């Protein structure tokens, strides 16, 4: 698999929050594959207080591909119910 220069991959993670990662800002493509048990995937961004995680858009409940336009900052994913999650977010050149 190719290296992501502006993005992050999570391989076979369970439920809960992933580790935080930094994005440079711009257009991003997100892919999500998992064993669903009725759960969802929520992209979150770190608020200006440095401790509160805020949702970015609506939670994703269907596996596949999603686009985001994001400002620079710290992000993480929060996974509910699903297992064997394969998540990748990468910058998309304009």
Secondary-structure blueprint:
Elements: E1 7-13, E2 16-17, E3 21-23, E4 26-35, E5 40-46, E6 53-55, E7 64-70, E8 73-80, E9 83-91
Antiparallel strand pairs: 1-9, 2-8, 3-8, 4-7, 4-9, 5-6, 5-8
Describe this structure in words.
- The chain is mainly β.
- It has one domain: Sandwich (Jelly Rolls), CATH 2.60.120.380.
- The chain has no helices and 9 strands.
- It has strands at residues 7-13, 16-17, 21-23, 26-35, 40-46, 53-55, 64-70, 73-80, 83-91.
- The strands form 2 sheets. Strands 2, 3, 5, 6 and 8 form a 5-stranded antiparallel β-sheet that branches. Strands 1-9-4-7 form a 4-stranded antiparallel β-sheet, with no helix packed on it.
- A hairpin with a 6-residue loop joins strand 5 (40-46) and strand 6 (53-55).
- It starts with 6 loop residues before the first strand and ends with a strand.
- The model has no long low-confidence stretch (mean pLDDT 93).
């Amino acid at each position: 698999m190719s290296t992501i220069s502006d993005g992050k991959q999570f391989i076979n993670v369970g439920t809960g929050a992933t580790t935080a990662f930094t994005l440079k800002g711009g257009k991003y493509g997100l892919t999500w594959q998992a064993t669903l048990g009725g759960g969802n995937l929520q992209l979150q961004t770190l608020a200006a207080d440095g401790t509160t995680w805020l949702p970015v858009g609506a939670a994703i409940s269907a596996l596949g591909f999603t686009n985001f336009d994001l400002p620079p900052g710290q992000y993480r994913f929060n996974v509910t119910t699903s297992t064997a999650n394969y998540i990748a977010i990468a910058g998309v050149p304009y």
